[in-house]
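Data card: per-record layout.
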Amino acid sequence: MVDAIFQKYSMIRYYYSNMLLISQGSQTNTRSAFYKPLFFEFPEDLNTYNDIRYNIMLGKALKLSINSDSLGVTTTSFYFPAGTWCNIIRPTDACIVSTGQAQNLSSKAYDYYVHLREGYIVPY
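The structure for this 124-residue chain is written out next.
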């Protein structure tokens, strides 16, 4: 629990930066969302429309993979669009180089993954 709270507050600069950009974009008729399904960022990839509750984007740079509605499940298949995705919560994990495929990751009640999208920088 302490680790999850630490991670949440470590990313607060990223949250606020995105909220500011989103609020300024609404004044120029370009609408966006911070917490959104994966297909908002990858509309041409038809696989992003599957399992939208497990594959979430936080802004444009971070992908949240979490299974919070199934108890007793040890692994879940999370979809990663084409590109390189690096885990920022556990940086010792290998980066996922995907061609647009699902990855089976541990999904116990306390497991969650935040992957950084290739080509982005996040203030941490």
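Known properties of this structure: Residues 12-27 form the longest helix (16 residues). The beta strands are 35-37, 55-58, 62-65, 75-80, 83-87, 96-98, 101-106, 113-117.

See the next section for split statistics.
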